[in-house]
Amino acid sequence: MFPVLPVAATEFWMTRWLTTVWLVGLGVAVGLAILALLVGLFAILAKLKLFLPLQAKPWLGHSVALVLSLGLAAVVWWGLMQSSERAMTDVEQRLTLFATWFFAAIATWSLLFCSSSRWIGEFSSIAFRGVGAAILTTAAVVAAVGLASTFVVEQPIQTLASLPQIFSAGERVYKISVPGAPTDAKESPFTVAAVPYRAELLTSVVIESNRNIMITDSDSVSRFQMRPVRVEARGEVNWNRKSAIPPPLPTASGSQMFIQNQEIDPAEVVFRLATSPANPEVKALLISALGVIFAGLLFFLQQGVAPRVSAIALAAAKNEITQPLFLVLNLIGIFLILLFVFLPFHTFGEDIKLLKDCGITIILVLALFQGVWSASSSVSEEIEGRTALTVLSKPVDRRSFLIGKMLGVFWVLALMFVILGSWELFWVAFKPIYDAKESSQDTPTWQSCHLELVRTVPGLVMAFLHACVLSAFSVALATRLPQLANFAVCFAIYVVGHLTEALVSSAEGGFAILQFVGELIAVIIPDFEHFSMQSAIDVGNRVPMSFLSGALLYGLLYTLLAVLLGLVLFEDRDVA
pTM here? Predict the structure, then answer.
């Protein structure tokens, strides 16, 4: 606790609210600082011209980046598997491996292709103008709010002290051998067990032995401070943090663990110790920082790998965010989310679930409208107005034009989700406090506010993938359809995409032709229910990384399908 904050102030409702906001804001600030350091690293590497041979031969650079990314992903994935708290299925392991490779690929490709003199010269124009400046400004505001909350949050030093514990937490297995009792001794001696652990971080303990043993905290009965724990031969002792009994290990500060082997033969004792940080909520800081870093590298990588595509994408995004529609949609979203905070839903204490569900739905609907509108205005209107002819008359092919427009729409959606998503999370952290005051209950802890915020993030990620997939199809259709027809077709895709599972299940066991049509629709039209998080939000379940990885892969595959569809439709389109 900082001295400027009295102890009694920790009961203040704003302290509980801003503590979780502080973690996220501090993570964003750390991510921005690391991004700045990476840009400096890129500048140094550009002066050294270390990767110039790879940049001069793109095929060689892409090959090296692929090999490095696969190696890095394998190492990180192995570490994740070792520290995983539960056993994963083969499918979950593959999906986790894919997500790990995806982020490793962003890091390696950025290192190889952003460390060039050309990219350094263009950095200021892509980072401080247009959509890059808008995203950077929004992130800076979030970071500023978090940093400004530092002096009014609860126990910031103690919370940050848990950050190193994240990397050492997990399950550890220790095997020790305890010598048997001498035949001429009156009683078995006590042997010191060199098992490292921190009692305050233990979440579960499992002790197995092939002999009868006793565990205590001293080698003398007169100095016992804990009740001795007996482990039967070929039996085990189980304990977890939710147990009413104390752990079967010494917990006093400075105490040692002693084991008494009560049989003549040596005992083989196995300890399975699971630990977690004292404040596991500090993971939000790390995740926020990593999210900012990888999002920034992805934005930089676009310019480093495909500068022509990036120029089209940034120009399209800049044009859309300067339109009045973008501002109006964001203002509508900000107003409705704020309204949902104070609007009584009469759900018997479950208003926060409706706030999260309604907030994510509003952001998704507004983003879908913005995405389809941007696709029509940046592609269809440019083709009809002969503006596309001017662009294609330069050394820009149709593939670069289409992909650039699609990326531009994606960055517009990303900016909208950053703005409205941050606003949603800000008030989701406040909602438990507001509901407690309305029902005359005690103010919830900041950990409860933090838990509600964390459970909302996967829903926002899934909604963003949902918006990107439908917007990708809208860009593809905009090469042939005018704006009104594009809206109608995209609305039909949206409706059918949410009814895909119902169509397939209703066609089963019926006519063969109906079953074929249902399965065909399920293949062609994306199943948007894969991006729905309503059930998880209602139940309050944790969303595993493998589920998000599967949604990411699913979204990338249908985005690629939309790109191929757009290239086919745009290939012989007369733009003159």
Answer: 0.86
